[in-house]
Amino acid sequence: MNKGMIKVSVLYPNNETGNFDMGYYCNTHIPMVKELLGDALKNATVEKGLGGGAPGSSATYIAMGNMYYNSIEEFQTAFGPHAKQIMGDLPNFTNIEPVIQISEVLI
Questions:
Q1: Averaged confidence pLDDT in the chain
Q2: Domain, as residue range, for 46
Q3: Structural domain tally of the chain?
Q4: Using one digit for the tens of pLDDT, what is the confidence trace for 48-71?
Q5: Which residues, other chains included, contact 40 with Cβ-Cβ below 8 Å and sequence gap of 6+?
Q6: Quick one: pLDDT band at residue 1, thresholds 50, 70, 90?
Q7: Is pTM beyond 0.90 here?
Q8: Domain assignment of residue 45, yes or no
Q9: Closest of 8, 84, 87, 63 to residue 41, by C-alpha
Q10: In the sheet where 99-104 sits, what is the strand order?
């Protein structure tokens, strides 16, 4: 990712009652998001939590989706019209309320 890009992270906290279908997320949800957001979305990555900082500890997040844009305005313009459809798909792969963070890539 290039310096100055905007990274939108969707973080799914790991908890005992949470369910997360990684196959659906990677094979259905993310491709749908890519199609809906079009050229505004420069790149997307998915991460699966494996563990915490201490040996044997659980990962803080069960999964993380990251989307990269040239600007916040490009993200908002692309995401806004499709927000209801994208967010409406969440129950198809998880019962976990995601945490959203928008960041600027510095390095």
A1: 97
A2: 13-61+68-104
A3: 1
A4: 999 999 999 999 999 999 999 999
A5: 69, 70, 74, 75, 77, 78
A6: confident
A7: yes
A8: yes
A9: 8
A10: 43-48, 61-69, 6-13, 99-104
94, part of any domain: yes
Q: Tell me, what CATH number does 37's domain have?
A: 3.30.70.100
Q: For residue 95, which amino acid is it?
A: N
The answer to whether residues 68 and 5 touch, using CB atoms and an 8 Å cutoff, is yes
Predicted confidence band at 10 (pLDDT cuts at 50, 70, 90)? very high
